[in-house]
Write a structure and sequence with these properties.
single chain; 296 residues
């Protein structure tokens, strides 16, 4: 990728990666839609298109990351570019806060307003009397989560098993990435690689435990995405968080490879800092999830 160096701000030359990204994502979503809506026995076309799109997205990431890394190592970026990167990352994390805030808002509305109303409190007197007279207004119980004929009988997930373990895992990962950051600023390359590698492993361990929890919820507790409002909010919140942990772990692994190649210095390492900010955000979101989804 060529580039143009201006006095104030670095302006890269035209790139084909944005259009590759757009086409790849369109193909992926197109295939997923056909796969999900296919008739029995006709899912092959949609599934094939979906995986083609996924491979294209992975190739796009690899190529685009390579181009940006080359720009960074070439010395093309100045202080103004660094400030714009930091502001961009801040706004990105803010958008993620709003994203999770919408789901937490839905959870709070369902628990604080909708469930009590269906139980006959406040404005829900007539709803309780004429629509669902035997409704049990208890959050998390099968009666509080939805009619048995819709979601079936299910059990809630206890907070003090795998959720607590995952909380300790993520808190530990926040410590290890902080250690790695201090090691990078001190110029201790070995400690940097050990701390960052430990963070990647802890992220993978978290995902493994969450997958095990999902399997337990489905097989032993009969809890699914269709198990009323409890199942819907549980899987939407924890699932989207798990997706963010997956992305964060991939980014941490890429940063580890870059650190191993000596790409960062103690004075110039915003790529590392950006991923560290994102990982700390993921930690904070999980603490809120653990409190409001599992404990309360």
């Amino acid at each position: 990728m060529g580039q143009q160096q201006h006095d104030v701000y670095f302006v890269p030359s035209k790139s084909y990666w944005p259009i590759v990204a757009a086409v790849s994502m369109f193909v992926t979503v197109f295939g997923a839609a056909h796969w999900l809506n296919a008739q029995p026995g006709d899912a092959g076309f949609g599934e094939t298109i979906f995986w083609v799109g996924v491979v294209a997205i992975l190739g796009m990431f690899f190529g685009w990351f390579r181009s940006v890394i080359r720009e960074s190592l070439s010395g093309s970026y100045n202080d103004q570019v660094d400030r714009s990167f930091r502001m961009g990352m801040m706004w990105f994390i803010f958008s993620e806060v709003m994203f999770f805030g919408a789901f937490f808002g839905a959870l709070f509305y369902a628990r604080i307003f909708s469930v009590p109303w269906l139980g006959g409190e406040g404005h829900g007197v007539l709803t309780h009397q004429f629509i669902w007279e035997n409704y049990n207004a208890a959050w998390g119980a099968s009666g509080g989560g939805g009619p048995g004929k819709i979601g079936g009988s299910f059990q809630t997930i206890a907070a003090w098993g795998l959720p607590l373990l995952n909380t300790l895992i993520l808190l530990s990962s926040g410590v290890t990435i902080t250690i790695a950051h201090h090691a990078l600023k001190a110029g201790h390359r070995k400690a940097l690689l050990i701390g960052l590698g430990a963070t990647v492993l802890l992220g993978c361990l978290f995902l493994f435990c969450q997958a095990h929890e999902y399997a337990e919820a489905y097989e032993h507790f009969n809890l699914t995405l269709g198990s009323g409002v409890y199942g819907a909010t549980f899987f939407m919140l924890t699932g989207f968080h798990g997706m963010h942990v997956t992305l964060g772990t991939i980014m941490l692994a890429i940063i580890w490879v870059r650190c191993a190649k000596g790409h960062f210095t103690k004075d110039d390492h915003f790529g590392f800092e950006a991923v560290a900010w994102y990982w700390h955000f993921v930690d904070v979101v999980w603490l809120a999830l653990f409190l409001f989804v599992y404990v309360l």
